[in-house]
Known about the structure:
Blueprint: H1 2-18, E1 20-21, E2 41-47, E3 53-59, E4 62-65, E5 72-78, H2 83-98, E6 103-109, H3 116-125, E7 131-133, H4 137-144, E8 150-151, E9 153-157, E10 163-168, H5 173-185
Parallel strand pairs: 5-6, 6-7
Antiparallel strand pairs: 1-8, 2-3, 3-4, 5-9, 9-10
Keywords: Redox-active center
GO molecular function: antioxidant activity; oxidoreductase activity
Protein name: Thioredoxin
Amino acid sequence: MQFKTLAFLSILSILLFTGCDSKDKDNSSKEETSVKSNNRVSEFQLKTINDTVVNLKLENDKIIAKDYPNKIVLLSFFTTWCPPCKAEIPNLIKIQNDYRNDLVIISVLLEEMKTNDEIKQFVKEHNINYEVTNAPENMDLAKAVGGIKSIPTMFLIDKRNTVFQKYVGIVPNEMMEIDIKKVLEK
Length: 186
């Protein structure tokens, strides 16, 4: 019985700390650490579950949240079926509460065929207090930032629209807070 419990806890730990594979497979083994810099400009209008629009612009190596000037942005790619994504939610709620004057979290759902009502129920069940987008353009944005290989994947973007840090998998709250404080000191 103890062996089964230990095996279960080991598997659960591995899942939590490695993240979930994204359905978008890519044969390259090179892990991208920043937004693709291809001297192009791409604009995205991502509809939230509350029928507002988040306007994002990718310009070279910058991610510009046009609706949130002078704010730090945490751009989070997730799914509702991913255990590490769910485990990350309390950390994101705390960060949004603690830094609400300086930071905005934009969660980008990477699931097709989910209705806004289904996502609203998920948001309610998890007490999510930040923007959640559910738009066909979400997948295009994921590709434009270099492809999302694992979820959750998050980009911490400073007030100058530069990616300060990319996180893949579940991230300790303390690590994100240290990075947010560094960005605030810039």
